Amino acid sequence: MSAADTPAAAAPRTRRIIPFLVFALAIALLVATPFLPNYHIRVINGLLIYILLGIGLNIVIGYAGLLDLGFVAFYAVGAYTYALLASPQFDLHLPFLLILLIAAFLGMLTGILLGIPVLKLRGDYLAIVTLGFGEIIRIMMNNVDWLTGGPQGIARLDKASVFGIEFARPVEIYFLLLVIVFTVAVLVWRMEQSILGKAWAAIREDQDAARGIGINTTNAKLAAFATSASIGSIAGVIFAASQRFVSPESFTLQESVLIVLMIVIGGIGNILGIVAGAAILILLPEVLREFAEWRILFLGLLMIVLIIIRPAGIVPRSFGPDKLIRGLFGK
Amino acid sequence: MTLIFQNIRKQYGSNVAIDDVSTEFVPGLIHGIIGPNGAGKSTLINMTAGSYTVSSGAIVLDGRQMQSLKKYEIANSGIARTYQNIRLFDQMTALENLEVCYYPTEVGATWREVLWPPFSRSQRERRREACMEILRFFNLQGYATAEAGSLPYGRQRMLEIARALVMNPRVLLLDEPAAGLNHHETAELTAKLAELRSPARIMIIVEHDMDLVMTLCDRIVVMHHGKLLFQGTPAEVQANPDVQLAYLGTANDIDEIRAAAQDRRAKLGIRARQRS
């Protein structure tokens, strides 16, 4: 009897220690980042932007269960919004926060525009159409020279500044990103917990039964597309403001696929999972820089191993932020 | 308040699934729809709930035509249903399966719920309490935080009815609620359904379990080959020769079938069904 009790009692304790250690490590990294060399800060900034993108795309893929392979389009919309409104291109120099709002709105609009024609599609069909949409936006950016500067892109973008405080150096961008990522993560998590989030889950589980309980699936899905797209667009603004240069090259299909991979590897439908997935997919290639030519092979192996040992992702849906908070602060 | 079928018809190409059915359902009563497989019983339910379109004719609830509304609009005008094959939101908890039904009335407050923690706390508290009460009615409170898909089959059937009830429907459509349940569970279901009879609610049950139908239903519609064959009280239905021929079989037939089945079981060495 007591022999049977020991492992059962030990299991919850390890389950509590591992997330705690990972969490402590993450906090330590966040605190240490400002003191690292610029190059490292840039890498972390890239990571934070990908986390933001992951949180956005996860609304559509993880919450509402709609596979979107063209997410990078919204990222591009945001980046080009900033590039056009804060650069010598048209000699417009709007304030950063205003552009952030405009971009969020434009992203939302694009999300709805994409959402309307694909509402009836699911699964593979939806994936193909959204993939096409992503490419259309990129090709358009590449060809509408008078607007976007074509393949050369737009350079010499303004430095971002909020209420007179400039955000240009990597460490400054880092703090800006930290605030935005944290705010967006909290809002999106609360959204998932709201009645709308529950409706998204119901649509994911059984769309027809969701209609049967009175959910207007059209509106709920459009809300998912719109929220997700506007977060993608916000990420684009910050990306453009930190690079101070945009070109269509940054918005290839590969980027969309990378974000989807982050979500799938990390834990679909879970913000904590996205952080984990992004950390692995962005930081690991940096750590393994010397083996750059093995990167794709390594990624393939990682995927195979994860699919076998953790099919629900590194941090499964069931271990959400609420569980982490409860685990850390007791109760 | 009544639910009226006016000459409704459902056609797939040249195949007529429902042929000119007219009838009326009234609140306070439990209506049964019976008939052999393929008679069109489920099709009637599916058309009423908006899962299928109606080829011609009208479905009228309280003077309002329902057949051209979208499925979610039909649900929001007070028609709730369960499915022949259970369709719960499997990866959501039992409690969430009920809570999500508050979407139509509360989605407008989503932003307040996201941005204002005290509001969301009271909102969620109220929602949870109301849903827990319904779970308790079905003795499901112990499963509140379990994933719906992990519940035993019989509990899933109950949960699906609970989910339909959260919507506080004026019309409750139950598509074979006893399918796959054992004797004990069927008895429990029968008792619960009897309690749900309310002057504010029209209940319609499609069911093959004749014990349940005859015990529970006040009015029965018999379907046969897409046509309405007969309607009346359980006693009238049982006594009707057409119905006996088409579906129930005469008393002699039933005895014969039962005897034959027992024989087969004995030959195969299957013991009589045991329920504890």
Automatic annotation (TrEMBL), chain A:
InterPro entries named in the record: ABC_transp_permease (IPR001851), LivM-like (IPR043428)
Family annotation (Pfam families): BPD_transp_2
Keywords assigned by UniProt, alphabetized: Cell membrane, Membrane, Transmembrane, Transmembrane helix
Domain of life: Bacteria
Membrane topology note: Multi-pass membrane protein
Location in or out of the cell: Cell membrane
Entry's transmembrane regions: 17-36, 48-76, 96-116, 123-141, 173-189, 222-245, 257-284, 296-314
PANTHER family membership: HIGH-AFFINITY BRANCHED-CHAIN AMINO ACID TRANSPORT PROTEIN BRAE (PTHR30482:SF10), HIGH-AFFINITY BRANCHED-CHAIN AMINO ACID TRANSPORT SYSTEM PERMEASE (PTHR30482)
Protein name as catalogued: Branched-chain amino acid ABC transporter permease
TrEMBL record, chain B:
Residue ranges constituting the ABC transporter domain according to the UniProt record: 3-250
InterPro entries the UniProt entry points to: AAA+_ATPase (IPR003593), ABC_AA/LPS_Transport (IPR051120), ABC_transporter-like_ATP-bd (IPR003439), BCA_ABC_TP_C (IPR032823), P-loop_NTPase (IPR027417)
Domain of life of the native organism: Bacteria
Keywords: ATP-binding, Nucleotide-binding, Transport
GO molecular function: ATP binding
Alphabetized SUPFAM superfamilies for the sequence: P-loop containing nucleoside triphosphate hydrolases
Keyword presence, ATP-binding: yes
Protein name listed in UniProt: ABC transporter ATP-binding protein
Organism of this sequence: Mycoplana rhizolycopersici
